[in-house]
Amino acid sequence: MFLSVFDMFKVGVGPSSSHTMGPMVAAARFLDRLRAAPFTAHGVRASLHGSLAFTGVGHATDRATILGLAGFDPETYDAEKAEAALTRIRAEHRVTPEGLSPLRFDPDSDLVFDYGPPLSGHANGMILMATDAQGDVILQETYYSVGGGFVLTEEELAQGKDTDTGPPVPYPFKSAAEMLEMAKTSGLTIAGMKKSNEIARGCDNSLKKGLTRIWTVMNDCIERGLATEGTLPGGLGVKRRAKGIHDALMAERGMNLNAPHTINDWMSVYAMAVNEENAAGGQVVTAPTNGAAGVVPAVIRYWLDHVPGASASRVDEFLLTAAAIGGLVKYNASISGAEAGCQAEVGSASAMAAAGLCAVMGGTAEQIENAAEIALEHHLGMTCDPVKGLVQVPCIERNGLGAVKAVSAASLALRGDGTHFVPLDACIETMRQTGLDMSEKYKETSLGGLAVNVPNC
User: Fold this and answer.
1) DSSP calls for 195-208
2) CA–CA distances in Å: residue 175 to residues 52, 222, 327
3) What is the pLDDT of residues 4-38, one digit of tens each?
4) 408: part of which helix (H) or strand (E)?
5) How far apart, in whole angstroms, are the C-alpha atoms of residue 398 and residue 406?
6) Dihedral, CA atoms, 182, 188, 190, 196, nearest 10 degrees?
7) CB-based contacts of 308: which residues, under 8 Å, 6+ apart?
8) Fewer Cβ neighbours under 10 Å: the N or C end of the chain?
9) What is the structure's pLDDT at 70?
10) What does the pLDDT look like over 343-382, one tens digit per residue?
């Protein structure tokens, strides 16, 4: 099993990896099919199903679908150009993707929110169609946005997990137990094994450049969030808080007024800065999703700024270790809030961050696995119930608490020798089962929990 570090950490656009990035990626794939088709399409349509319908407007799924069909993609997204394109599309009722003739598309009639039962493959389903001059469908494809910006066609989803056809990797662990055994046999760290796997599919130089870019985008996102004030879009009137909290923390430095627990505020404010940027539609890195994008960068920043001996030269080790854990969760359970609740998003992110921090603080493979298990275990059962379908309440603060739990989990693991009662594999399987048992009301549909118990305006 191989999931690249760049699968787990993707540069993209907020507010949601599954609801914003995923539909944009699906639309890009559909356009590629049209470019390769032996016929000329005259129009396109789209229908959104399941969670993509129920929370689609709050998650900007409609905008993402329109922009994807117009040729925009998450990694090179330009907000100013996107706004201009949306205005033009709504006025002209057509999209003009590169390499294709103009295609009829009226967002008011050709983009349908289907609030019926979800499609059979996943809670996040969408159908894209191409039409001829008469408006008859001549090509149709079903896509599933399965979390973290990953997109599968109906056929790909049916093929199952083990469809990797790339070159073999030296350490193809599919479970934490296999990971620990391979680390013991090889004498390598988890990050070392992950690096070897990445190089087997690429090269050392591109890996280094890619990881540097990932951390740069993460850190820039923190900085923007710490510097920006105002009210977040969407109608809830949620005010950005990160700048105010950060300014207060900076003013208190050196005054000997802080209680020891103030360090939790630093962890939280870094995470909140990222998720406020995400909620505003800014550039973020999936870690492993947009809704949980603040946890990993917050813990890295906490380590660099507040832990003696921390070095930016080891951020790669942190990211590689975190990606290894995230890959196990995705392969054996889910990182999709629409599939398994927020335990699959912030819970997975906290496990990844705990593992990364434990690694750069000298933890053994066994301690790293323990750190990940502690963090994930104490997110089990967490629902995804965003108010008004926006990635704001409770998502922003939840990332802050996910970061605090990650640091606590790493610290506890480092106090032990790596032996513990609940294996990470058992915890991941428990998360999967809990997600299956969880009511659909609590899986990113905004039909239960906080979403129906607090005012939506």
Assistant:
1) HHHHHHHS-HHHHH
2) 30, 32, 9
3) 999 999 999 999 999 999 999 999 999 999 999 99
4) helix 395-415
5) 12
6) -90
7) none
8) C
9) 98
10) 999 999 999 999 999 999 999 999 999 999 999 999 999 9
Tokens 């007024």 correspond to 257
Cα separation, 383 vs 366, in Å, equals 29
pLDDT on residue 162: 60
Residue 382 near residue 449, CB atoms below 8 Å: no
How confident is the model at residue 455, as a pLDDT? 77
Structure tokens at 49: 């199903």
Dihedral angle of Cα 289, 293, 296, 297, to the nearest 10 degrees: 140
Q: What angle do CA 13, 79, 92 make, to 5 degrees?
A: 115
Q: Pull the structure tokens for residue 10.
A: 């993707």
Distance in angstroms (rounded) separating the CA atoms of residues 309 and 189:
20
Where among 129, 159, 189 does a domain terminate?
A: 159
CATH value at residue 330: 1.10.4100
Kindly give the parts of the chain with pLDDT less than 70. Answer: 161-163, 257, 457
Choose the final residue of a domain: 100, 129, 159: 159
CB distance 243 to 227 below 8 Å? yes
Q: What is the pLDDT of residue 400?
A: 98
Cα separation, 83 vs 81, whole angstroms: 6
**Residues 321 and 375: beta-carbon distance below 8 Å:** no
Classify residue 95: in a domain, yes or no: yes
281 close to 79: Cβ distance less than 8 angstroms: yes
Query: pLDDT tens digit string along 172-224?
Result: 999 999 999 999 999 999 999 999 999 999 889 999 999 999 999 999 999 99
Distance CA 341, CA 444 (A): 7
Domain boundaries, position 80:
15-159
At 169, list the tokens: 């990797």
